[in-house]
Amino acid sequence: MPNPFLGVRIPSEVHEALMARVTITGQSKSDLVINALRAYLGMSPQQEKLEELEVRLSALELKLEQLTQESHIHHHNHRPDIHYRPPQTSEE
Description:
0% strand; elongated; mainly alpha; 3 helices
């Protein structure tokens, strides 16, 4: 289903500014108007992306915490006998 159509009349100075932005950015008038409306309505793509990233970050933090706890449990139950010995140097 196609997006709904919205036709509006705008003042000539707004139209001129819009057309200048089209020329500068290469974006379509529709894309510029949609992005402007989203920003005005608090629905900017950046805000949506930020919220999505916050959710993903929370999930990663939870997974990291779980892995850290599992690592500590594994580390305490299995302690290999590995000792570091620095190489011996011969003195001349």
